[in-house]
Task: structure prediction
Amino acid sequence: MTMQASSVTLPAVTFEDVHKHFGTFQALDGIDLTVRRGERIVVFGPSGSGKSTLIRCINGLEDFQRGRIMVGDIPVDHRLGTVPLIRRKVGMVFQQFNLFPHLSIIENCTVGLVMTRGMSEQQARAWAIEFLVRVRVGDQAHKYPSELSGGQQQRVAIARALCLQPEVMLFDEPTSSLDPEMVKEVLDVMEELADSGITMICVTHEMGFARAVADRMVFMDHGRILHDEVPDVIFNQPRTGRLKEFFSHVSASA
Amino acid sequence: MSAAQPRGRSLKQAARGVFKGLFGTPTNIVLTLIIGALLVMIVPTIFRWTILDSVWGNVGREACAQASGACWAFIAAKARLIVFGRYPYDDQWRALLAMVIFLGAMAFSADWRRWRRPHAGRTLAIVWLIALPACAVLMTGGVFGLRYVEIDRWSGLPLTLMLSAFGILFALLFSILLALGRQSKLPVVRWICIAYIELIRGVPLISILFMAALMLPIILPDELVVSKILRAQIAFIMFFAAYMAEVLRGGLQAIGKGQYEAADTIGLTYWQGMRRIILPQVLRLTIPSLVNIFISAFKDTSLVVIISMHDLLGTTNAAIIDPEWLGIYVEAYVFTAMIYFLFCGGISWYSQSLERHLKSGGARR
Amino acid sequence: MTVSSETYRAPPFWRRPAVRGVLIQAGLVLGLIGATWFFVSNAVVNLAKNSLTMGFDFLWSNASFELGESVTGFAAGDSFLDAFYAGIANTLAVSIISIVAATILGVVIGITRLASNPLARLLSGGYVELVRNIPLILQMMFWYALITRSFPSPRRALQPFEGLFLSNRGITFSTLRLDALHLWLVGGLAVLLLVLLLLRRPARALKAQQLAAFLRDPRLPLAVLAAMLVLVAFTATLDVPKVAGFNFRGGASITPEFTAVFFGLTIYSAAFIAENVRSGILGVTRGQREAASALGLRPGPVMRLVILPQALRVVVPPLASQYLNIVKNSSLAVAIGYPDIMRVATIIISETGKAIEVIAIIMAIYLTFSLIISYLMNVYNRSIMAKGG
Result:
């Protein structure tokens, strides 16, 4: 792991003692986490452990009750109204793709560029097509989401987020609702993206991807971070407690 | 599925199905005989009345005296009164032309093949920006040597079309605000919208029309009191917006949370997200229910006769009180009913084919 | 890597969601208050110009008009409040009768639309399409014109069967007349019958076996019913209408206005009820073909007994809103002069000039109808839920 520039640049994302509960259910229970610029983090853990909530708090899709989250030098604060500023810096890819079904593939990408970046329609199209080519759906640009396979749709979703040039990319189980044969094409795109140096926080159970790409792996359970280590340690050290239990489930189901 | 079978065989099967339906069971035989007898009694009577024994052409009252069938001569004599009402007789070509332009623009906009073409929005906007002022100039006059016709003389079909078209359009816009307000996180906004929607939906349209006709002149200063037609127009907009808002609310709830989140995530503001992402999907989803409201709106414009305005039904009533044609009214009501029937049927036929088209994904090419 | 050049500044306070929320809501409230103030002050000025005042005192002063017909027996000289009551009663009278008739007609047509007999399907489909696409008010006017213009005068009234006359004065028919004593007796028996029918279900839980068996014996209510019929048959006199001058005397009659409103509401609403029934049955049977075979009368009563009750559950909520529509649509009666609440309101406005007050009253009345129907609807839904349906 490199230590480049971490002393002179601000971290990309920091959590300080973040608590969140839905009613009586404690979703996040004292999260402390620092993600440096260019770092690639994989968050994993059993379902209901709070990993989705964790990344959804970063771009303000969820609010939290206590603690502090910073994206760069901007606090994520619903009361101060900073969420729109955060959303300019953070892109997100969802488990269910959430493409806009009434817009063509290219329009899915340009709508954000035109409305939030003030581009003209033509500029936006020229700009977006490059990203679609990069995720290898350039030839599908004029189709509609329902005409594409799940894997293609998820790659479009990645392009839609990327073309807005975020500083941080969030992935919320991007391969979980894909058929097995399509998982790889999405992971390939994500790996290429990882090489580009963008900050990535991925909630995923794809351990192969984690081993290949992650700088750090964060294991969560019951709203807490139980492990925050480099992949080598996670995969090779003797496992204890919840992590062991988790891996036995994963390997049993795989 | 039968669709997969060869055509000839399925046709034969269909014929067999029909036969079986008619005579397959004792109950069906009885039913067929009863309905058949009923039809044999009624259909020839209607046919004789409307066609065989009827009087056609603009031949005057006397020609009808001997005939036992329908007196279509009455329609021939009164058609212009029924269709254009109190609009000045010599200028009725203007109202006709305005209707043709208006319906033409409608038909132009209704063609969904046009919607996907580049600059479709701009083309439609230009069409309407030409059509609407043209209609207004034709109807009102006062320029280009056209005689000025005050708005209170607009009547008959042009009035019905105007009340329903503008009523539907502005009610839809208003209903979007109401539906969004009803979903708002701000309690005051939400409660005001709920109160408005429930209040309007709880009372009959006539009470709203009376409010516009009788109450507005009292609660507005004299200089703000607009013509009766415009007041009725406002009443329609207020009334139908509440019903459309309920339909849209259902649509808004049917759109998945993911769409809202995706719109938020790419940085769209609330209004941008609504305009570009959510509302287009909601409208597409709610077309069938919205069209049902459009049809009721079109039919219910006829309620303005109660506040003594002369829409299509009002002019029909005016036509049948002519003492010269005493006793003739069925023909007039049939004529007017057919006009309503054609328009309502046309709207629902169009919405069904549009729905099929959208379902088949045709709009996507 | 470098820190991005733009450094963070907290957004201005008016960008805060909470602040915006308060501002928007305060603006809305102020706007509403302002509009209300504007309307009221204009109303005061405009009313003063016509030397009118605001207030509801007029309700207790005497009305000088007559109503064409009144269930409550309203007559000139009664108060305006009584006139409102008369209007409400007339509205309810025509609405309730139309609701019953439209339900029967609508269910029959709705089932017929799914019949296996293509002729029946065609006929009922044609009915629905034709009736739905013609304005109700036009239909009412047509019926009214038909009765008043084309029906013969009482002297030459049509007599489909003995004691029933169709004329341009409406429908006139013979009635049974009972003297007061027997009327009370029959009424008492009717109450007894009702109580017995209501007791049948709870009687099952009774400890006393004999009493329970007695109460649940089907012969008991039949006997009471028979007693009623015998009583009526032997004590009632037939009041046959006779032509006297230009009208009938004796019997009872339904005015052309009532008849036209009733025909219009029933025929129009039945088309909508039929569509509700149809989609309810389709929803239960998941498809036209199954519905047709289910209702195709050959598989028979079992299917009908299974499907119709299920469909009923689906149909009840839209049916309730159709009933509410009937009550609201009965206000179209004003167009042909039936003295429903709306007609009474217009008469009172023209007599007193109290437009604001009267419109407020009729809106309140209709809202009450709506609330009652939606309350009943909620009760029904809860009882369905409780049954685990």
In short: Residues 42 and 210 of chain A are 6 Å apart (CA to CA). Chain A has a mean pLDDT of 87. Chain A touches chain B through 28 residues (CB under 8 Å). The radius of gyration of chain A is 18 Å.
